[in-house]
Write a structure and sequence with these properties.
Number of strands: 17
Oligomer: single chain
Strand order of the largest sheet: 11-12-13-14-15-17-16
Largest sheet: 7 strands, mixed
Helix content: 40-55%
Number of helices: 28
Shape: globular
Amino acid sequence: MNKIGLGVAATFTAEPLGDALRFWLAELDVKGDVEGDVAFAPYDQVFPSLLDSGSVLGRAGAAVVLVRAEDLVAGDLAAEQDGLDEVEAVATDLAAALRTSARASGTPHVLVVCPPSPEQGSPEAHARLASRLAQAFEGDRAVCVLASAEPYEPAPEAVHDAFADRTGNVPYTDRYFAALAAAVTRRLHAMTTPRPKAVAVDCDGTLWDGVVGEDGPDGVVIGPERMEIWRELARQVAAGRLLCLCSKNEEKDVREVFDRHPELPVGLDDVAAMRVGWEAKSQALRALAAELDLGLDSFVFLDDSPVECAEVRAGCPEVLTLRLPAGAAEAAAFLRHCWPLDLAAVTEADRERTRRYQEERRREQARGEMSLADFFATLDLRVTIAPAGPEHEARAAQLAERTNQFNLSGARRLDGDEKFVVDVRDRFGDYGLVGLTDVRTEEDTLRVGAFLLSCRALGRGVEHRMLAHLGALARERGLARVALAFRATERNRPARDFLAALPATVEPYGEEAAWYVLDAGDAAAVVHAPGPAEERAAGPARTTEPAAAPAGWAAVERIATRLTGADAILDAMRAARPVTEVAGASPVEATVMRMWAELLDVAPASVGDGFFQLGGHSLRLVQFMARVRAEFGVELPFDTLYTTSFTVAEVAKAIEERQLADADDEELAGLLDELAGLSDEEIDALLDSGNG
């Protein structure tokens, strides 16, 4: 994850989440003062925090909001049907506040609808609130809604802590807070870190068990666990990832496996490209990148062989190369926990990506069979430019975020008074929504703040039609000029070349920026005139989408194999804060010291160290008492502990005394139960015998 500060607001006491969030920031190698990088809003101040730009959420680089339906709605949800109607109203208000906060700050927001308490919560209210909010932000790239801590959710009995909830309004166990932090951080990682665009997969030992060259197409085995791997790849294709095969085999054998397994959720039609042969896999990946016109840093490569993975890491260090476990079940679990394969939001354009690459291949084939002029003459290019509507919002945001090469101003946000979207198709297929402009009127000039076009439509005259549309719009409104904002970036050379060919005057403004100003009539008359200089631009341009996730393969593999559940995460957090062993400490004292080391800023070094002296406070005390109750089965008196300064030795003694007292109470209760079952004569007989 890029370096970000996390702001957290909740309807309950959520500070225990902080330790787990800081663990993940450190695990993902976030530089800087990690300890100060997670800040919490005041207790139960969710709405004020969302609406105040100066709040913790407004100042943070990413916002985390945690709510329970029972905290947002007055009354007993479990008993009052009217409360469910109030949930609908609360969901509407909360969605509006989230949208306001996300747009004002320009930062990602993750909202978690947390589990209801067993005593006062309502599963139906929880489900309704989660459903309404998920619908409100479906496809939104700025706000994400989670209804659970999946895939880290522990067993139901490990979620709630009634004692801590009753004592300090801390409703969940350490285990659940660890799971919740993992789910939130994973989603923020997907929202803030560039995603890979293509997944290249080995075949033998990865897609099936066996070696097709030796066992034959009928001899390889695709069992239930391997089928899970295929389903994960199908999900990747459905989400817009390009699937490639990269295997040392005979291509006909690989194709025959597909032919003989029609039940597979991925077919050859879903494969964007393949390199099946006997060349080094690093060379095969370079060939795949060239065929798809992608950078190597857009690829994830999956293989079960450590030798092949090492060869690719050496030959193609830009590729994120991941070694899958040999076992099919473990490999499927690995993919479920492989963070770079996550996607925060999927647009219709993403889902159509493989089809569009296949159409582009047909265009390239046609272009190679005729002159450039004939190619354009027969392309039957149809460009539709229309005002942007709410249905275009997700794709427009995606385009603004990803487009680099033909982005005149480098803009990532569209702030003009009017916005227009550009849809393109030709005889080979539909490009989809590929262009955006936004405009405002200033005196006699139509000023264009954003003018961008996806690389897949670049060099075919679409950009000229966009400018002609703006010129016609200016003339229609009686404006004399069209001014295009331009700011040079490292990657927008195609935009510079386009502007240089226009009959425009340049008016500098700001730092390293300029207006390219055209007469409205000249802008309206711009046409595409392909020539030799455009030979490369007519073909598919290098992808505008960001490179693969910066996390190294070792970090990705460690997370996908070792940090896959709440218990494993807690163990890793504890290992990161070792406890000093003290000679002569009793088992109870040693356990108390471990708990304090995990909870406090400073770990105890002796049994004489005091809780508050080491940085303890009331919330940490509630957490400690909850752990004592879970570990030792006893409840310590909160008031007494909070009003006195106690040491490791003193609290260990109190735990042991309370255990003895509870044991005596249980023995007495057992005796009374036994006596309650005796008759008066039997009791008298026991007393007379002296055994009572």
